[in-house]
Amino acid sequence: MNKIEMKDSILIIDDENDLRNLLIKLLKLEDYNTFDAETGETALNLLMKEDISVVISDVKLPDINGIDLIPKVKECNAFCEVIVLTAYGTIEDGVRAIKEGAFDYITKGDEDNKIIPLVHRAVEKVHLKKRIDILEKSVSEKFNFDAITGSSILIKNAKEIASKVTATDTPVLLLGETGTGKELFAQAIHYTGSRKNKPFVAVNCSAIAKDILESEMFGYKAGAFTGAVKNKKGLFEEANTGTLFLDEIGDLDLQLQAKFLRVLESNEFIKPGDTKSTKVDVRIIAATNKNLDDEIEKGKFRSDLFYRISVMKIELPSLRERKEDLESLVESFVHMFSKKMNKNIKNISPSFFETIKRYNFPGNIRELRNVIERAIILSEGGVLTENTLPREFFYEDINSQSDIIRLEEIEKKHIIKILNQAGGNKTKAAEMLGIGLTTLYRKLQTYGIE
Q1: Cα 174 to Cα 190: distance, rounded to the nearest angstrom
Q2: Which end of the chain has fewer CB within 10 Å, C or N?
Q3: pLDDT tens, 106-132?
Q4: What letters, b where the CB count within 10 A reaches 16 and e where it falls short, cover 277-309?
Q5: CA 237, CA 129: separation in Å to the nearest integer?
């Protein structure tokens, strides 16, 4: 059955019967619903009861000035647009009408041919505002703390602390292993805070080369270097009035750390090729899977930057520390992916849950999400069984084995896990393992790991 489209309603407020009737006829020819009123009071009563898209109001009404009526209309219906009509237009009244929020201000008689096109444009603006409102509400629902699945004590504590900083602009540092949901927390802090309708910009500091990252973050002026043919806005500017999420800040180059610190302390920076400062108002949320205290001792991270970004530190637990949340997380991902893939998953076998509960999930929630997506693709008959799980889920737990295991086998399995955590990035994997890249390549060849 086709969806019935509702007509937009237009309210005409004027004490001249002839003009009201003329506008009603014209608007009905354009397929609009119409309401009319002779006074401001009658009009406001109608606005409380009816969904009016556009108000067309005379300035001189028996009980109120039409311009003074505008904010009262907006109080009744924030989406409604107001077109003001006047017999004797003045610049002063026109300016005041626009300041009060009128869509337009036109003179009767001289500009009658403008009314219908104006109503069309006003209705389009109302539709746009309603769509934006729906999108903003859906984003807020998607990125709030209720969307973070889990009822374990550790995740509850993390959510409670994070929810307390949403009303402030205090810098937040999210700590935790890769895949624990740091970006999800950053989004929840932003979209439940006072900057929720402003930009949320995320950047992974480890994924972009140092020279490119500087240009991405600060932008540049045309002619700053070879190839800079036009001005470029940096991410600090893109995030202005909103939130900048600096993921993997522990991997930030030391020179860039100094520049970041200056921006955080002064809220301004000078672009390459520019001679004046660019001012920004940005809330900073940073995240890392590294121990920054250790990085400071090694001389790899500035202590002054650490103190600046870590006013509020929030530790996110690994999945193995919150195994009681596994079932609810699995059910959440099953619901999401079965809907996305249009697959009807009717049941999850007990052996499926038993198998995943024995696994330590080095990749945390991100790994679990990928495992569930894979399982749903492989599922048959609408049931998830242990047969849909990857082979590594069936390795015996090294710590529970009574037999002697060769050191090489332990090392091989550990390297595979770290490679998975590093997303296949061998340079990053070598750093996480604390060995040189050449050593890692030699071990990969020895163990036949591709």
Answers
A1: 13
A2: N
A3: 887 766 678 889 999 999 999 988 887
A4: ebebebbbbbbbbbebeebbeeebbbeebbebb
A5: 25
Domains of the chain: 9-138 (3.40.50.2300), 146-315 (3.40.50.300), 319-394 (1.10.8.60), 399-447 (1.10.10.60)
pTM: 0.64
Residue with tokens 């890769």: 178
Round to whole Å and give the CA distance between 67 and 311: 48
- Tokens 């002697």 belong to 404
Residue 25 has pLDDT above 50, yes or no: yes
Give dist(CA 366, CA 185) in Å, integer.
14
Give the separation between CA 140 and CA 131, rounded to whole angstroms: 14
CA atoms within 13 A on the CB side of 321: 12
Which residues does residue 232 pair with via DSSP β-bridges, in sequence order? 220
Q: Are 421 and 178 in contact (CB under 8 A)?
A: yes
CB 231 within 8 A of CB 278: no
In this structure, what are the phi and psi dihedrals at residue 54, rounded to the nearest 5 degrees? Answer: -135, 135
pLDDT reported for residue 313: 95
Produce one character per residue of 322-359: b if its CB has 16 or more CB atoms within 10 Å, e if not: bbebbeebbebbbeebbeeeeeebeebeeebeebbeeb
Of the candidates 309, 162, 168, 165, the one whose C-alpha atom is nearest the C-alpha of residue 247 is 309
> What element of type H or E holds 186?
helix 182-191
